[in-house]
Amino acid sequence: MARKIIIDTDPGQDDAVAILLALASRELDVLGITTVAGNVPLDLTTRNARIVCEIADRPGVRVFAGCDRPLTRKLVTAEYVHGKSGLDGIALFEPTMPLQSAHAVDFLIETLRREAPGTVTLCPLGPLTNIATAFTRAPDIVDRVAEIVLMGGAYFEVGNVTPAAEFNIYVDPEAADIVFRAGAPLVVVPLDVTHKALTSRAWIEQLRAMGTRVGNAVAGLTDFFERFDMAKYGSQGAPLHDACVIGYLLKPELFTGRHINVTIETAGEFTTGMTVADWWRVTGREPNAMFLGGIDRDGFYAILTERLARL
Ligand code: RIB
Ligand code: CA
Q1: In the chain, what are the domain boundaries?
Q2: Which of 54, 101, 160, 293 is most buried by a 10 A CB count?
Q3: Could you tell me which residue ranges the Inosine/uridine-preferring nucleoside hydrolase domain spans (predicted)?
């Protein structure tokens, strides 16, 4: 029986790789893709999600547009990383697959109420605005969530948008606070992991050698996406942040972490958006998250490459 998931996303090149990996994996049943404003505004993340589904030749995937701004704050985007389109690196096109008419938040609520409790996993890959809005509007769905596996936060790796905060949490700290306090089983894939999941020139050439639409698209996307991190960190490749979430669903044994308390800073003068991870368990606060710290990078790229070759 395939694992039912909903991907909540702000594509973004790394979101695109996560979506492709999920669509290529028969272990996963993607009930829907919900889009949120983040890397780029909502109209672009929503268009981009449909572009990615069409590149995967999966026009039947249901895509729902969600919240176009954070709960209370002004939207902060990341065109400086992802390009103006949010999906720079490939020849873009106007998707023809339909956009569902329901709002993403209504889809989240209705799906969690319809599916059996404990059978649907949420995979947020962007700011947590949609998830927090759904939990606030329909608190009854929280206990029905099987697990939330999200990309966000940082501890030993510190922030990537401020010295203290990672982008997905920073854009909507109030939403993150609601999700982290909700009580649903939570797995956090932070920069501590994703900065170890770097692409390489050899891998990008391997993708091109596939000679497929997907291989070429992922090569183009990561070729563009890596330039920012290589310039900023002097690293040798791009961190495929969001794809690590799907990698965890497929092979959790490739990851290590600790079940600890993670609290979101929402009022720090310099630290707003920080995931205050109690890695050494000094606060006495109740553990609420499996906070990951390690990844078998080569094992992750092995399954990622094998699955992308299937599309
Ligand atoms: O900080 C990395 C996260 O922010 C990733 O999800 C990336 O897509 C951006 O949304
Ligand atoms: Ca993202």
Answers
A1: 3-308
A2: 160
A3: 5-301
Given a cut of 50, the residues of the chain with pLDDT beneath it are none
- Residue position matching structure tokens 């709002």: 103
Residue labelled with tokens 């290590």: 256
In this prediction, residue 71 carries a pLDDT of 98
Question: For position 99, what pLDDT does the model report?
Answer: 98
241 is catalytic: yes
Closest ligand 1 atom to Cα of 241: 5
* Residue whose CA lies nearest to ligand 1 atom number 1: 167
Query: Residue 262: beta bridge partners?
Result: 277
| Homologous superfamily in CATH for domain 3-308 | Ribonucleoside hydrolase-like (3.90.245.10)
CA dist 45 and 12 (Å) reads: 7
The whole-number pLDDT of residue 41 equals 98
For ligand 2, the distance from its centroid to the CA atom of residue 16, given in whole angstroms, is 9
- What ligand has the least distance to the C-alpha of 244? 1
